[in-house]
Amino acid sequence: MGLALVYSSDQVKFTYDDYRQLPDDGKRYEIIDGELYMATSPTPNHQTIVNNFSFALTAYLRAHPIGKIFPAPLEVYFTKTNLAQPDVIFISKERRHIIKTKNVKGAPDLVIEVLSPGTERRDRTIKRKMYAQFGVREYWMAKANTATVEILRLQDGKLVPVARLEKSDLLTSPLFPGLKIPRAEIFDFKFLSLPAA
Known about the structure:
The chain is of the alpha+beta class and about 200 residues long. The protein has a single domain, classed as tt1808, chain A. It has helices at about 15-20, 45-65, 120-125, 125-135, 185; strands at about 5, 30, 35-40, 65-70, 75-80, 80-85, 90, 105, 110-115, 140-145, 150-155, 160-165, 170, 180.
């Protein structure tokens, strides 16, 4: 996501009911521990990374139907004061009961966030803590300007770094047996570098 703004008060706690009253203005809103966050529209590079993750995982899931991938926008409801819209989520067949008509209620198996200058600190700290608190099994953070992916896995109630992908590394995960995504595919921006018509 792009630049993030936060609305909070020591006395006021935002809830899901407040969230539902927000305008449908194309921005993405999240509530973390009762604080309301807003992000502006993502950049083309950001969306390219989201699409590349989605395409690679969707191709894997067509051959191995073990769950579903959902790119943003889709709200993930943890509690009435904790609601996120991750860039990409994966929900295994075993947890398909959390997929509801309007949202996801409960922890996805995997959350992917594409870091941006306006949201990186939040993604690395309070969102990481929230995802761990509610039982997200894996958390992937991709960063465009360094072309790296950090893999965190839930251990003893915390999301702990287990790998950092660079150069010719392959992305693998116990959530997706046999999956191998070259890091370069995630950061493939060739189309965006074409000259303007």
